[in-house]
Amino acid sequence: MRGAMRRGAALAVIAAATLAGSAQAADAKRDAAGTLKDGTVIEAVTLSNAKGISARIITFGATLQTLIVPDRAGKRADIELGYDDIQSYADHPNYWGASVGRYANRIAGGKFTLDGKAYQISQNDKANSLHGGAKGFDKRNWRIVSVKSGAQASVTLALTSAAGDQGYPGTLKVTATYTLNDAGDLTMDYDATSDAPTVVNLTNHAIFNLAGEGAAGGINTHKLTIPAARYTPVNAALIPTGELKPVAGTVFDFTKGKIIEQGLRDGRDPQIVAGRGFDHNFALDAGATKQPKLAARLEDPASGRVLEVWSDQPGVQVYTGNFLDGTLIGKGGHLYRMGDGIALEPQTFPDTPNQPAFGSARVDPAHPYHHRMIFRLSTTG
């Protein structure tokens, strides 16, 4: 009898442990997202964890469509700007949450030289190339290759960019893997291989409002911290001048944390005038690293939500939605305006292919590209 009781107790413990493990498991759910006007079928995968965090990724643009996060009181809200419907992502592209490439940010004149050969790539930002050109990766329908639930939930999407695509050399095979764990980390791994020398710079272009997308006041009262003592000033076309300028004594000093509105519209700084706000790359003190390190920390004091961005890349582009003018109708019928969101995009510096002092964006067949970035979500009291 006692043996049977002991065996029963042991089974009860095992069962309880199993249930507890299941409660902590992260879930990945795949479903249909809709069909574009041209007949393209779009799929979605929703990753969710036990903390009430969920991320919905759609195949169009390998886009993070929603990111729902609880505040300090447990109230959940979508903290990412974007669209409710799929067709708007095709009709009114604005990089919301998209995986951008082949080259995130700007390349001057849409030109660069590699191994002595000049390349003219797609110009879609006046004379410059922006986020991969007129039909960058944000405007492609990626394919799902893996969906997993368990201790962490993930989805891997893939895309092949043929040689000559948007003017770039080499056939590039790219994957984007989103992984959510129960600690509140949404990790994005961008990997790429090329059959010929080329240039690559991939990132995610999510635009956040930690109070909830569409919330009054935008991101003006958010507190931003960036571990960067220098940034890259830009010219009138928003191309880096090549200088690495100290942030000390300027509105670009976020090293100790600062409310965003303190400088966001400071017309006395010619760089704020050029960008219509913050639209600049910060040179992270740690530079490029083997493992991700903190690139930026964003906090909404009112809701208590905190977003830390971690990355192995040398820079982070800060963009305060300066070109949002109320003409785009986003989620919930909200008209998005300047300052309604902020993008924190870890990456290689803008225009690096034309500015050797910035390092290198080169990818060779024997040296694949990898970028790991993490959105680390939490709350503070």
Number of helices: 4
Q: What kind of sheet is the major sheet?
A: 9 strands, antiparallel
Secondary structure: number of strands: 30
Q: C-alpha Rg, in Å?
A: 22 Å
Q: Which percent range fits the helix content?
A: under 10%
Looking at how many chains there are and whether they match, the oligomeric state comes to single chain
| Secondary structure category | mainly beta
Strand order of the largest sheet: 11-12-13-14-30-24-23-18-21
Cα separation of the termini: 52 Å
The percent range for strand residues is 35-45%
Task: Write up this protein.
The protein is mainly beta and 381 residues long. 10% of the residues lie in helices and 39% in strands. It contains 4 helices and 30 strands. The strands form 8 sheets. It has a 9-stranded antiparallel β-sheet, with no helix packed on it. A hairpin with a 5-residue loop joins strand 26 and strand 27. It is globular and about 55 Å long.
Compact description:
This protein is mostly beta strands and 381 residues long.
